[in-house]
Amino acid sequence: MTDATNHTQTQDAQMGDYFALMKPRVMQLVVFTALVGLLVAPVGVNPFVGFVAILCIAVGAGASGALNMWWDADIDAVMKRTVNRPIPSGAVQPGEALGIGLALSFFAVILLFLATNALAAGLLAFTIFFYAVIYSMWLKRSTPQNIVIGGAAGAFPPMIGWAVATGGISIESVLMFALIFMWTPPHFWALALFVKSDYGDANVPMLTETHGRKATRNHILGYCVPLVVVALWLGFTSVGGPFYLAVAVALNLWFLKGCYDIWTRTDADSDADNHAVEKHTFKVSLYYLFGHFTALLIEALLRAYGLTAWAGW
């Protein structure tokens, strides 16, 4: 803990501090992709059961965030973009964060098991464990591939949603997982290129720090290419269709161009315009993922009215 953190530890936590502990922005993405996974599945779900399932997934995501903040409090206290988080700011005590994270984890997994099925609950439990232990406690501080492998934690929600509805795993849910998994590295490495000093100050072995910015640019483009393949492949499964495919083509051309532009730049180029291309591509990456899953949702609605061209592939 820093001196500033120790100085502010006595302040009373507000409800907003506890909510921030659960990383609400990340939770929004988790809830959205899980909801899409549930709604595009070929088996309908009782609305109340579906609500409970999404609630459990959201709570599980919040639990993961709390456990991550508990473990990473020392890193967060050093990095500029995280120094105001609840623990380093002194609003929430580390022990409180640990207790909240564990309690919410057990609540979410057990309730999801009782409301749906063992596979969905098992996937949620593994996701929490993977993010809190495999990624936060091991990968993040030990390897520049932390984002690559750790990205699996954020890729499981649509698989969980699919499992809630079907009780199983299929090529569609695997490809939804793969879409998020392959998207995560270029998304975060684009961010790392313009907040690189934060990771270095915190001794986090981000690729930008261990291999340099040129290697990071190479990796961004290298992951974007197979990402395009996964995104388009999903369009030819039972959850895809002409609308999704049209959106996917447009989004992938947009994101691929951004990654290519990053790849062609030098350090001098980035410094000269204050990383304008990297920042733009990072924003594009947010639209990219949201756009794909929104298109899947619209495709499911079209399919319900018999308006898709290749339902049942």
From TrEMBL:
Lineage: Bacteria, Pseudomonadati, Pseudomonadota, Alphaproteobacteria, Rhodobacterales
GO CC annotations on file: plasma membrane
Miscellaneous comment in the UniProt entry for this protein: Carbon 2 of the heme B porphyrin ring is defined according to the Fischer nomenclature.
CDD domains attached to this UniProt entry: PT_UbiA_Cox10 (cd13957)
Bilayer topology annotation: Multi-pass membrane protein
Residue ranges crossing the lipid bilayer per the database entry: 26-45, 51-71, 91-113, 119-139, 146-169, 175-195, 216-236, 242-263, 284-305
The name this protein goes by in its record: Protoheme IX farnesyltransferase
Pathway linked to the protein: Porphyrin-containing compound metabolism; heme O biosynthesis; heme O from protoheme: step 1/1
Keywords: Cell membrane, Heme biosynthesis, Membrane, Transferase, Transmembrane, Transmembrane helix
InterPro entries in alphabetical order: Protohaem_IX_farnesylTrfase, UbiA_prenyltransferase, UbiA_prenylTrfase_CS, UbiA_sf
Classification via Pfam families: UbiA
Subunit structure comment from the entry: Interacts with CtaA.
Glycoprotein listed as a keyword: no
GO terms for biological process, alphabetical: heme O biosynthetic process
Family: Belongs to the UbiA prenyltransferase family. Protoheme IX farnesyltransferase subfamily.
